[in-house]
Amino acid sequence: MQADTLVCSHPRSGGRWLRYLIGHYLAAHHRLGITVTPETVFAVVPDHLDEPTRGYPAFRFRDRRDLPLVSVCHQPYSWEFHRGYPVAFLARNAYDVVVSAYAYFTQEKAEFTGSMREFIRHPRLGLPAWIHYMNSWAPWLLRHRDSVFLSYRELDADPGRALRRVLEFLNVTPDPALVAAAVESGNEMRSARGIRTGQEGNFWDQLQPEEIFDIQEVVRRDLSEMGVHLLESMGVEVDPFPRA
Prior knowledge:
By secondary structure, this protein is α/β, with parallel strands linked by helices. It is built from eleven helices and four strands, in the order βαβαβαααβαααααα. Helix 5 (127-141) crosses helix 11 (225-234) and helix 7 (159-169) packs across helix 8 (176-192).
């Protein structure tokens, strides 16, 4: 199945929230007759995979030619998997990503039991995965014309504006009332799920100075120049705690 647009982000960068906003809006605008929840949203906005419960097989509206097929993808860039697609790319600073990921893998998933400093350097779950993701996407996105960039800071500060930008990228004229309803529902969803690591700059209250320095050291060493340029062009802080 060929998506019309991909929404791409590293895990723990706001992709679930943005997917929910898009799904809620499209379901209301196209009168799909589905109540969008975190569990049913894949019927409207599936993953860019063939996985049966979250991917394209879960998409319920193949017969609706007027409905744009928006798919969500968290994979590092590859030519075979991503070429030819318009992309809405969402990015978040490394510090907040690490805080959110640590909470997810130690509490929600119970997959990691070590310290934050150990987690930061974990090759699959921690900071190296974020750096690999950004380094893989940056060279392609910096020359790809059919794309729109969103920062988590923007999504956090004004989710309605972020949603409108994605809808306009989809050539959908936003309905202000439906945008407001999607944002309200998204806020209720996040509140009901007790999401506490979702605020921009939340890491200041969650990380110790030595943990911040650890992240800073790895980002300075391993994030490519193109990765830095991409994030800075999006308004994503690469180094929010400069040291002399």
